[in-house]
Description:
4 helices, antibiotic resistance, Phosphatidylglycerol lysyltransferase, 0% strand
Amino acid sequence: KLLLKISAITFVQLAVYYIIPYFILLSLGVTHVNVIMVISMHVLIVMVASLFPIPGGAGGAEYSFSVIFSSFIGTGSKLVLAMLLWRIVTYYFGMLSGLIAMLIQPKRIVTKK
């Protein structure tokens, strides 16, 4: 029962993470995209970025994003904007959230013996 709950939560977490480029494309006026195709390409980008042994796959992630999504986004400026938005939401927002979570001191739980 616990395994099913954890699996469902993880599925939702990954679905939200992998659908982010789809909504970024929609916000930039790119409407001729298939959500399954965009999710598949984002999975591919994450796999390529994991090949680079540097934090966040910096460089490799951006390059693979620009190569893969250039077929959907016509202009270079929109492609750069989409890449920046994608990187901010998927990478830097997580780092900032982790920093805030680390700075918040949890209340100590006192147990009686």
